[in-house]
Every structure is written in structure tokens, then in C-alpha cells.
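Recall from the previous lesson that a structure prediction takes nothing but the amino acid sequence as input. Here we apply that procedure to Peptidase from Caldimicrobium thiodismutans. The sequence below is the only information supplied.
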Amino acid sequence: MKALIISADNFEDTELLYPFYRLIEEGFQVDIASLVRGKIKGKHGYTVPVNLSLEEVNPEEYDLLLLPGGKAPETLRKNARVLEIVRAFYSAGKPIGAICHGPQILISAGLLKGKRATSYKSVAKELLEAGAKYEDKEVVAEGNIVTSRMPSDLPYFMKTLLSVIKK
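The prediction returns the following C-alpha cells.
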């Protein structure tokens, strides 16, 4: 099984690192993609190696997509290639996990209208404006999309995301 994490500088460190290691524990090969290869730096100073540029990503090769939060989604949601990748996962019915500000990418991809979702509290209004049914709870699973609010929700987020992929 293969998982893809898409992020950029200023990601929320725990929201990338916790799922990264948890997925490896479950036997996934995990790739991290960003605007360019090299390294990205989190809000709290952690650096993570990026082994793929967005242009190198082939969504067909992956079973799961993860979109960590922090400030990175604000940058990524403006990138046409990111939106194309996210839509490809969605169309293929593959699980997509988005936490904190990660759902902003799903909003920009046009995937949340009429769907239940959660996010960090400062994104809630934007979710509602996009036509999503906002729920203020640890994790919300709607079809192949799993959303969560913040770092303290990570255990619930990963448990639910992993249960979706095992179906």
C-alpha cells in the first residue's frame, strides 16, 4: 500500500509527522510531495524531506492521500496541480484525509459541497460558505473523505482514516 502526503512550508508539524509515522507502522510506503523536491519546514521548526515534486505525482500509484494543516494549505490550494491530484483521488474513490486547515484544499477543489466535514475553527465559516455541513467534532467521515480539527484529534483522525482504507 502506498500513501501520499502533500504539504509545503509552514505545515503543522504534528499533523504531518504523526500520520507519516503511523502510516509506516501500518506498512504503507509513504511519499511526501510538495512544490519542489528538497525539504519543507514546519511551523515549529521540524524539517521533512520531500521526495517528489507535484509534477512527478501519479495519483494512480497511491491508495491514500493526506493533507496536513498549518499554513501550508493556504499556499497549496492555489496550485492547479494540487487540485488536479486531489480531484483524481476523489474520483477514484480513494481515501483522502485532511486535518486542521487541510480542508481548505478540498474546498478549492470543489469537493465539499453538501458533505459533512470538520476543520480548525477558523476554517469553519469557509466550509459553510462552500456548502459543506460543518460539524465541530474530532473526526468526520463522509464517503472517502475524512476530516479532523486539530492536533489533539490525531488519534481519532488516524483510526478513522485507517478504517476507511481497510474497507
